[in-house]
Amino acid sequence: MKHLMILMVTFQSFLGAGAQVSKVSLQASGLTCSMCSNAINKSLKTISTVESIEPNIKTSTFVISFKPGSAVDFDQLKKKVEDAGFFVSRLDATMQFDNVALADDAHVKVGGNNFHILNADQQTLTGSKTVRIIDKGFVSAKEYKKNSGLTKMDCYKTGVAATCCVKEGLPSGTRIFHVTI
After folding, report:
1. From the DSSP assignment, how many helices (H) and strands (E) are in the chain?
2. What CA–CA distance (Å, rounded) separates 17 from 70?
3. Which pLDDT tens digit goes with each residue over 98-152?
4. What are phi and psi for residue 175, nearest 5 degrees?
5. What angle in degrees, to the nearest 10, is found between the helix axes of 74-83 and 34-45?
6. Phi-psi region for residue 60, left (φ > 0), alpha (ψ -120 to 50) or beta?
């Protein structure tokens, strides 16, 4: 029982490891003109945690900065793009890490979100690092299928905590974002 408590405390400190999402680079698909870009820009500006947006019409990319201390809701970003009539084809998040220990095919909580780290060497992250969200709806169908080979855990297919995650202490049904570094 004592060992189980030590394991749970260690896991909780691992989950709460200090890191913050500072900005996101979001690429949208389906844009054909500057009016399309403007529609996405207006939609994203309605998110209260967004501090600024830098659109690039040529690459269909939006660099979104967030208010300090704000939790970032990646699903909300995706929904705002879809509400404007388009799709997310790539989402990279820049985060500040403070000695966060990572391992391949493991879960970690960062900036209020739960992440499943895929295709990463065991390492400790410090400073600014960029991760790519590879869940369905955040990448092309072809890339999503290709990335499915990076894990055998069920949470990749559903986007929520499955048996694999519950064993690590995450409640069933908790939203999990799958990322590569």
Report:
1. 6, 8
2. 16
3. 888 888 888 888 778 899 999 988 999 889 999 999 999 999 999 999 999 999 8
4. -70, 130
5. 140
6. left
Assign a CATH topology to domain 2-180.
Answer: Alpha-Beta Plaits (3.30.70)
**Inter-CA distances, 143 with 65, 139, 164, Å:** 26, 6, 23
Q: What is the pTM of this model?
A: 0.85
Which among 55, 48, 49, 40 is positioned nearest to 88, based on CA atoms?
40
Q: Are 44 and 81 in contact (CB under 8 A)?
A: yes
Name the residue type at position 104. Answer: D
Q: Reduce the DSSP state of residue 55 to 3 states and report it.
A: strand
Q: What ranges do the domains of the chain cover?
A: 2-180
